[in-house]
Write a structure and sequence with these properties.
- The chain is of the alpha+beta class and 348 residues long.
- It has 15 helices and 9 strands.
- The strands form 3 sheets. Strands 1, 5, 6, 7 and 8 form a 5-stranded mixed beta sheet that branches. A two-stranded antiparallel ribbon has the order 2-9. It has a two-stranded antiparallel ribbon with strand order 3-4.
- A hairpin with a 3-residue loop joins strand 7 and strand 8.
- The longest helix is centred in the N-terminal third of the chain and has 15 residues.
- The protein starts with a helix and ends in a 5-residue tail after the last helix.
- The structure holds iron/sulfur cluster (SF4).
- It catalyses: Hydrolyzes free adenine bases from 7,8-dihydro-8-oxoguanine:adenine mismatched double-stranded DNA, leaving an apurinic site.
- It comes from Nonlabens arenilitoris.
- InterPro entries: A/G_AdeGlyc_MutY, DNA_glycosylase, Endonuclease3_FeS-loop_motif, HhH-GPD_domain, HhH_base_excis_C, HhH_motif, MIG/MutY, MutY_C.
- Keywords: 4Fe-4S, DNA damage, DNA repair, Glycosidase, Hydrolase, Iron, Iron-sulfur, Metal-binding.
């Protein structure tokens, strides 16, 4: 039996029943693929269902305000995915509302890279293009014993060429689903149960006991430490203040408390001095107390945020103040949402 046949046989027995597998609608397939990038299926599934329910067609998504789309995305992280999703939906509508039906044309959509274009083209239109995601890298590197790093150009090329060679041209959609599912369910990153694997007799990594070593990934530079002191403003009428982040960079367009940066933890008196350096604070009398002495650590791909929340009570109302309920309606980044949910849990 060929590699492809063995793989598809395994898939027929073990595949999970997931809603995006029973549709050929490119819009829904695209939604699922974008949601599942850097997200586990269990976490992504409720988001997929909510998106499909709220925006059943690409036209519905395109017509929605960006703030609503970001709000629905809240908690998934990597918000550029949501912004690109929204922008690409508008592109599709501008093209007459018909989804591009080839790998080449799908690549023209905002945020759609090689992987997503291949997934939509093969799952929705049965085009014979290979998908190469983290699962596929792992399966191929182990079975073929390839030590080239998967995050360098040479590795990307080598794995892509191998994936093209292995492609099942008669049923590319099933083959692609099968190899991804095999990586997700059988050839898992840690301690796969090789004794039940259909490839155990041919798998190089199993033969040479190199399973934990493969695939090889070159370590990236160390994350930069940032210390953010968030100002949780409270007015006499229980209002607070949020600001929108710039439209580029991390958490672009999302809302958070204003903050000041420092090189580390601050004493109350140092925090107060830093606030008073800012002109905005000159007219206010305020009382501050730190909510968490130890920082809440939030890791991003290249940064590590050490977050301190300072409760700052002022003695007058401010024009820009919003109620706590209104604050919860804003698209918040995950760090903000977590803090606000525990601090103001009675308002949820
Ligand atoms: S034998 Fe083990 S390492 Fe090799 S493909 Fe199967 S599960 Fe993966």
């Amino acid at each position: 039996m060929s590699f492809q046949q063995q793989l598809i046989k395994w898939y027929d027995i073990h595949k999970r029943d997931l809603p995006w597998r029973s549709t050929q609608d490119p819009y829904r397939i695209w939604l699922s693929e974008v949601i599942l990038q850097q997200t586990r299926v269990n976490q992504g599934l409720p988001y997929y269902n909510r998106f499909v329910e709220t925006y059943p067609t690409v036209r519905d998504l395109a017509a929605a305000p960006q703030e609503d789309v970001l709000k629905l995305w809240q908690g998934l992280g990597y918000y550029s995915r949501a912004r690109n999703l929204h922008a690409a939906a508008q592109q599709v509508v501008e093209m007459g509302g018909i989804f591009p039906d080839s790998y080449k044309d799908l690549l023209k959509l905002k945020g759609v890279g090689d992987y997503t274009a291949a997934a939509i083209a093969s799952f929705a239109f049965h085009e014979a293009v290979p998908v190469v995601d983290g699962n596929v890298y792992r399966v191929l590197s182990r079975i073929y014993g390839i030590s080239t790093a998967i995050n360098v150009t040479a590795g990307v090329k080598e794995f892509k060429n191998l994936a093209i060679r292995l492609m099942d041209h008669n049923q590319p959609h099933v083959y692609n689903q099968a190899i991804m599912e095999f990586g997700a369910m059988q050839c898992v990153p840690r301690n796969p149960d090789c004794t039940v694997c259909p490839f155990k007799d041919d798998c190089m990594a199993y033969k040479d006991q190199r399973i934990e070593e493969l695939p090889v990934k070159i370590k990236k530079t160390k994350a930069k430490n940032l210390h953010h002191h968030y100002i949780v403003l409270q007015t006499p009428q229980d209002k607070t203040l949020l600001q929108e982040r710039p439209q580029s960079g991390i958490w672009a367009g999302l809302f958070e408390f204003p903050f000041i940066e420092s090189d580390g933890a601050l004493l109350s008196v140092e925090f107060r001095d830093k606030l008073q350096e800012q002109e905005w604070w000159s007219g206010f009398r305020f009382r501050e107390s730190v909510y968490n002495q130890d920082p809440i650590i939030h890791k991003l791909s290249h940064r590590k945020i050490h977050a301190y929340f300072w409760i700052v009570e002022i003695d007058q109302e401010i024009e820009e103040g919003i109620t706590i309920q209104q604050a919860f309606q804003k698209p918040l980044h995950i760090l903000m949402h977590r803090f606000m949910s525990s601090f103001w849990n009675s308002y949820l």
